[in-house]
Amino acid sequence: MLTTITLFTLLSGQRRWGLAQMGTSPSTLKKVAGLRFFQLLGSGAANGFGFLPNLDRYGFLGVWDSAEAAAAFFETHPLWADYERRSRETWTAELAPLRSHGLWDKVNPFDYQPEDAASPEADGPVAVLTRASIRLRRAARFWGYVEPTSRALAEAPGVQLAIGLGELPLVRQATFSVWYSAAAMQHYAYRDARHREVIQLTRREGWYGEELFARFRVLSSRGTVDGKAPLRNAAADAPAR
Fold first, then answer.
1. Beta strands in 169-207 (DSSP E)
2. Which end of the chain is more exposed for a tag (fewer CB within 10 A), N or C?
3. CATH number corresponding to 2-228
4. Residue predicted with more confidence, 179 or 154
5. Neighbour tally for 147: CB within 10 Å
6. What are 139-178's pLDDT values in tens digits?
7. How far apart are CA 46 and CA 214, in angstroms?
8. Alpha-carbon distance 56 to 236, whole Å?
């Protein structure tokens, strides 16, 4: 099995088409051979974390029966060819889950054993995905903390990419980040005061009706986000020891 995530930025004039795909593409994706789980995700302003939507940027998350099934989709499927034709840039990462807990639409799509599970977690870059279904009565409280917390994440030493994504505006939100190493990610998670405060508040005040946390090893990546290739210069960007 294999997990992939793709970020794509639409060409000028494609906003109406891109927004429409959030409603029309799932019926096609449900029929794709080897695609076990998928989500089409929107994004917000301010690198995905803003209150207002970014109608130029979207994400596609897939969990596949095999790497071959994923390759067949990205290389030959007409729907994906249409996405690429209408995008000015795309970035795709192949991921292997290291650990995950929680649920996404009542399932944990990343609860599987990668073929190379014996590889050490600390080797190379890692990615983190957090997803939550926010209780409506807690949405204002949640968004009041998003901006300062996301700024701290984007500026953390060792982070190569951080973006906010979501299935539905305001109430179904996800954060995806890529790090130079597991050590860099853990340094932020355990030592950033704003991050710790938000984690404590979510538990104490019951912000989420459903949530999931997953950590992955990044197997490969290709393409660009905002003209840059995440991880291309990861070694140079690594925080000083």
1. 172-179
2. C
3. 3.30.70.100
4. 179
5. 13
6. 666 666 666 666 667 778 899 999 989 887 655 688 899 9
7. 23
8. 30
